[in-house]
Amino acid sequence: MKVIMVSNEFPPSIGGVQTHVYELSKAMVRLGHQVAVVTRLSDSALAIQEVMDGVAVFRVKLSNNHMLYDFKLHRLLQKMIDKEGYQAVHIHGMRPLKACKKLSVPVVFTNHTSSFLKRVTKGPKVLHKMKKQLDIAQQIFAPSDELVEATKKTGYQGPTSFISNGVDINRFYPVKSELRKELGIPESAFVAVLARRLVEKNGVLYFAKAIVKANQPDLHVIVAGDGADRSAFEKIITEGGCTDKVHFLGGVDNQKMPEVFSAGDVSVLPSLMEATSIAGLEAMACGLPLIGTNVGGIPVIIQDGETGILVEPKSPEQLADALVSLCNNRPLVTRLGENSLNSAKHDFSWDVIAEKTIRLTFNSAT
């Protein structure tokens, strides 16, 4: 199959949508399909056209004016369809949707973001506008049941399917890590990894309070991420007397994350809203069990008591209890970690996700 992916966001910029589009495209190529990515040129220093892991990438200078944006993008996509025989267009993010109206091939859309969940609560007028945008797509995918239901709430009548995010198991796996040594963390310590942007939706301040409440002498925390809530997080830790147990790395290149995860014993997802967390799946593929909140797509990747522990959102008490229970039961940590690794390999590899995506996309195209 020949597919065009359309996304305003794409590497080298960092984020969940960027990772999803890139990894899904690479997996489709591995499965024998032809994939082109059309993305906005965000930096004039980047190549306008290149091939990345078999994926043809086209970076296009698009106007901030909505009419000009839609006109140029539509014309480019239809030209690619006519000249190269692409069979479907797969959109990521709502901004490109209008530009894909009346293309001569089926259009599918993946609904990624938590901001969509906020928009559907804003009343009938907003819902009507959202439905009008979504009706351009013949089919919609989403990486959480919550986003599937939010899509339906707009009044969209087409097929809507849950498709999980995935993980590159060829890049994320247990490795020998020197990070504990570099950070001065004892080998005997119990280490929790927080790989999150430090922002409100990720629930990180509840986790900061949980660290203080857990009050475990062997507990250390590695924080890989930055954001608006960092100062508040640090204040909670400082006032709780845990400064020497929490190690801030700031933003970390995704290529280095296997070493970060492999330095830990557990990874924590304290989110208030979340799809099937890519960071959570990457931690699982590195052999870590998860502690995560019972929101969005997190219960899809955490089988409570099998691959990790589910807790309620906004509960420092439950997060602390989960940390303490694992800190004091290392054999359980080992068992949960083995289960996590197996689940990541067999249920959530990008090749598995790509096969399902292609099958449903092909159904739209026939």
TrEMBL record:
Species this protein is from: Litoribacillus peritrichatus
Record-linked InterPro entries: Glyco_trans_1, Glyco_trans_4-like_N, Glycosyltransferase_grp1
Name of the protein: Glycosyltransferase family 4 protein
PANTHER family recorded: SULFOQUINOVOSYL TRANSFERASE SQD2 (PTHR45947)
Glycosyltransferase subfamily 4-like N-terminal domain boundaries: 14-171
Residue ranges of every copy of the Glycosyl transferase family domain listed in the record: 176-340
Lineage: Bacteria, Pseudomonadati, Pseudomonadota, Gammaproteobacteria, Oceanospirillales
A Pfam family of this chain: Glyco_transf_4
